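Re: the request from the purification team.
They wanted to know what the chain is likely to look like in 3D before they choose a buffer screen. I agreed to run a prediction and write the result into the notebook, where they can find it.
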Amino acid sequence: MKLSAQTFAAVVFLCLCSCSKPTSVPSVLDSSEAKALQASFERLDHVLAVKGVAIQTNLAPPASPTEIAKLRAALGGNKIDALEAWFCWHNGTAGTRTDLLPLGYPLTIAESLDDRKLIQKIPFVDKLRKSAIKIMDDGAGDGFFLDVTSASPTVFYHMLEDPTPQYYGSLHEFVDYIAGAFENGALFVDAAGRLKHDETKYQAWEKEHFKKLIQ
């Protein structure tokens, strides 16, 4: 039986949608990984207290147990330690937008889940993007995500117009990357309390970070 062009297009669309259903798997940090991640958060907190007070004071409190429960429910009941640790550090920002990176401000659990629902309605988006949880937005709808389809989740930056993700390592490595950028002056806060960056230093720091990841 020969399918009409319209029917064929509909079949292809349904196939693409069904093949791109979001998934997630549970992920557990062992004691050493949990300690390393906690140390990274403490490192970032310390440098923000010294060099980014305006940012630190506008970060929201940790997520509540109820909010964490909603996160797990949205992920099929799966507990993802690194993701929960991120939101238990700060659940987004309180009030005005607060950037932590030139292309990223922290989202709340509610904002992250809303973003995930929205992206699932857009056809031809790859499965990785549809499944991941966005933890920081770049202000244009893209941003930094945590891959929740792996037992060892990693952070990546993704743009819809560029299907190739840029990986930043584990959440522990990513948080250290942010902290280090403040420590070396690649990132700083201006007199108005806004995040700024030294383009030359920041590019050098990013290059060094990617080099460490492949060693």
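For the purification team: Residues 31-51 form the longest helix (21 residues).
Please add any questions underneath this entry.
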